Amino acid sequence: MHELPLVFFTVLGQSAAGLFLLAYIAKKMGSIDDNQLKTANIIGFIIVMVGLGIGALHVGQPLRFFNMLLGVGRSPMSNEAFLSGVFVGCAAATLFFTHFVKQAALRELSNIAAVISGLAFVWSIPQVYNIATIANWDTQFTTLQMWTTLFVGGGALAMAIGARGLGLTSFLVGTFAIFASRASYQAFLGETAPALSAEQTGFWGFQVIVLAIALAAFVGFAIKQRSPKVPLLTCAAAVLLAELSGRIAFYNLWQITM
């Protein structure tokens, strides 16, 4: 658990990007209204700012963040830092043109930019960890789990703000990908780092159990056509905790190949 700031930074950032994406699509589909979209954007902005604030603890001194930008275009870490800033900036602009200077056209452009920059930010994250010297990370499973958080975390949050159908679909896609790939992932790690992998059983077990419970709850709400806000918010929070647990296991796999 030596990289907790990065655990929160990546999971919360990816979930916020997923919420921005799904809420925008849901609004275009007519399944949520303007107020629900505004709520989604506020929640997404708060979540990504919390993630960014906690992630800043990793660099120690705040000014070091600007040093990280010197390698934009050639350094995956610099690209990640830059795109996280662009995402936050576009998200802030969306809220600004929604609540302070009410300009519909600029709000729309900012929202589209937030969705696109959020996806670019999520894409940049696994580029940082596909390192040849760290066999446990240099695999397609790293990329997969970074994207599944967008679907799982974003889907759970989307359901909580009212995008029930699209949110459930996203959550189903993400959880199916996690469950379907887990055996192969464990087999891969059993060859590259059996001892380290065994130590993460508790974290992965918590993730899978919570996701399974949340899946059953979300499906139950959909079948009964009842979606009380408090249980949905509780499920969304539990899902984020599950993804944080899975990400802790990922960072605990850090090991230089000899």
Number of helices: 10
CATH class: Mainly Alpha
The succession of helices and strands, N to C, reads: HHHHHHHHHH
Helix percent reads: over 70%
Number of strands: 0
Give the arrangement of secondary structure elements.
Blueprint: H1 4-29, H2 34-55, H3 64-68, H4 76-99, H5 104-129, H6 140-161, H7 164-192, H8 194-199, H9 201-224, H10 229-251
Helix pairs in contact: 1-2, 1-5, 1-6, 1-10, 2-4, 4-5, 5-6, 6-7, 6-10, 7-9, 9-10
List keywords for this structure.
DmsC, mainly alpha, membrane, 258 residues, Formate dehydrogenase/DMSO reductase fold, transmembrane helix
What does this structure look like?
The chain is mainly α and 258 residues long. The protein has one domain (1-249): Formate dehydrogenase/DMSO reductase fold (Up-down Bundle), CATH 1.20.1630.10. It is built from 10 helices and no strands. The protein has helices at 4-29, 34-55, 64-68, 76-99, 104-129, 140-161, 164-192, 194-199, 201-224, 229-251. The chain crosses the membrane at residues 6-27, 39-61, 81-100, 112-132, 144-163, 170-189, 201-223, 230-254. It comes from Providencia alcalifaciens DSM 30120. InterPro entries: DmsC (IPR007059). This is DMSO reductase, anchor subunit DmsC. Keywords: Membrane, Transmembrane, Transmembrane helix.
Question: Could you write a compact summary of the structure shown?
Answer:
The chain is built from ten helices and no strands.
